[in-house]
Amino acid sequence: MTGRWSSVVPYIAKSLEALDAPAGPFQRLTELACTVFDAPAAVVTLVSGDNAVLWCSDRELVRSLPRERTLGDRLLRQGKGAVLVVEDGLADPAARNHFLVAAPYNLRFYAGVTICGPDGQPLGAFGVMDRQPRPRPSDAQIATLRTLGAMAEDIIASLEVGRVSEERHGTLELIENMAGVGHWRLELASGKVHWSDEVFRIHGLDRKTFDPQVDSAIDRYHPDDRPGLLAAIAHSAETGEGYKMRLRLIRADGEERAVLTQARAERDDAGVVKVLYGVFQDITDQQAQIGPRSA
């Protein structure tokens, strides 16, 4: 194996290379975590020797630093199955000097779990973060975080064997269904759109009878929302910047639903944006709950 990670254990090296990739396999998982936990950032930490590499979905940061400076190292020292919650980074002596707590990130809350390699040994952490202090997650939220951490472990294992685990894919679909979150992918050259099962469910459509293209997908939104979405897609295609939008979706049965979509851009080796991809969530019920409380 060649490259900057060639001197470390092979499966760790492949995972570190994946963190380095502009649109690597951890990206979809961290974006899903952000949506499920309504958090601005999710972070993967991998440790090799005395160093740690962090990939943070906020600003797509890949940074190497001494392992003792990371929250992931605290989890590794606790061993397999550990959970770490920092409710307020400024009030936690071990977290207040972390670089993500400082400007420009200003992150305060962290909830993470240990992730292990194929040999069962702890090698890093997976967590979600927020710029505001938060209370400790519920037992159900901790269980979801453990599932996301297990999926990170499956990504590491799949990189070692060179295939995508069917179990990981199935678990991802279960989490998407449970959270009302799906994922999508738009090929800009062809206009072909790929939806997960949950996106089809939110639309009230069947993949056997509906083959989404960019035009037919946009036609599913309220007419007043379509120009803004088209402009966001064009801007992302031109600049490589992502977008986050709340939209009104008109389902196949005519029902109007409130949805949230977040997008990122994927570039080819020449730096040209070829693909947009992201997550998609039905937030109708959440908005209905917020309405009475704010009235």
TrEMBL record:
Limits of the PAC domain: 243-295
Highest taxon above the source species: Bacteria
Gene3D superfamilies per record: 2.10.70.100, 3.30.450.40, PAS domain
Pfam family of the protein (one): PAS_3
Name by which UniProt lists this protein: PAC domain-containing protein
Taxonomic source organism: Brevundimonas nasdae
